[in-house]
From TrEMBL:
Protein name: HAD family phosphatase
GO terms assigned for molecular function: magnesium ion binding; phosphatase activity
Coiled-coil blocks: none
Entry-linked InterPro entries: HAD-like_sf, HAD-SF_hydro_IIB, HAD_sf
Recorded GO CC terms: cytosol
Pfam families from the UniProt entry: Hydrolase_3 (PF08282)
Lineage, broadest ranks: Bacteria, Bacillati, Bacillota, Bacilli, Lactobacillales
Length: 266
């Protein structure tokens, strides 16, 4: 019996930024509540943005920044924050290699951009991190707890930037996403490990978890869950990590379709 349903947000649960069939999901959520089944939105996006998409957010557990932060009913219950020395080391390496312009720091409460950030980078990041502040520099942050550093170098410099950061930040995880961005996280931070942590806290077995995803950062989560679904729009690499593939893609509510048929028996 399924006790927990975890799903990625962008190009998995949502058709677009904040766009999904809310009436249909409201009925599904009511059915899940009746059966005592929990849901876990788990995304690389910031908590404030994810929560804004759900009217019942104050009832939910939400994992943000790829599992770095976990909020339960609006309260932070798990936080994986970068040490100050590693933040400064990463920023120095980016500055020394002229890569400091298109960088975002993901704080617990806000995301931070520099004033000289390009409009293209800001527009791209705003899709995922819409609660932000713009600063003259990163050397004096309004908040000291940073969960993630994200940058989007020019395509031709992506591999070079990743190599520079891997050498400069040996104590951090350097993750190259499938959309041309680089994320710096604490080692061991991932959606999969966060899902395992939450399942352990709540006494839920892997066989009692259903999970949905479309990206490389979903692979570990899909491998762990007993009932895992790669989206129809996912790459072959992601599909090979899951037990199943959805009938429909994210534009056609593939997640809702599976939950209705396989969990609610509609």
């Amino acid at each position: 019996m399924i006790k927990l349903i975890a799903f990625d947000m962008d190009e998995t649960f949502m058709r677009g930024k904040g766009v999904y069939d809310r009436a249909r999901f409201s009925q599904i959520y009511a059915g899940l509540q009746e059966r005592g089944i929990q849901i876990l939105p788990i995304s690389g996006d910031q908590y404030a943005q994810i929560a804004s998409f759900f009217p019942m957010a104050d009832q939910l557990t939400i994992a943000s920044f790829n599992g770095s932060l976990v909020h339960d009913r609006g309260k932070l219950v798990k936080g994986s924050f970068l040490p100050e020395a590693d933040i400064q080391g990463a920023l120095r390496a980016l500055k020394d290699n002229h890569l400091e312009k298109n960088v975002m720091l993901a704080g617990e409460h806000y995301c931070y951009f520099r004033e000289d950030t390009t409009q293209d980078f800001h527009d791209h990041m705003d899709f995922y991190f819409s609660k932000f502040k713009v600063l003259p520099s990163f050397w004096s942050l309004p908040e000291q707890r940073v969960a993630e550093i994200c940058l989007r170098p020019p395509k031709e410099q992506l591999a070079e930037a990743a190599a520079i950061l891997t050498e400069a930040c040996p104590d951090l995880q350097v993750f190259v996403s499938g959309v041309g961005s680089i994320d710096l996280l604490l080692p061991g931070v991932s959606k999969g490990r966060t899902l395992k942590w939450l399942a352990g806290k709540r006494g839920i077995k892997a066989s009692e978890i259903m999970a949905f995803g479309d990206g490389l950062n979903d692979v570990e989560m899909l491998q762990f869950a007993g009932q895992s679904y790669a989206m129809q729009n996912a790459s072959d690499q992601v599909k090979s990590a899951a037990k199943h593939v959805t009938r429909y893609d994210y534009r056609h509510d593939g997640v809702l379709d599976v939950i209705e048929r396989e969990v609610l028996n509609k």
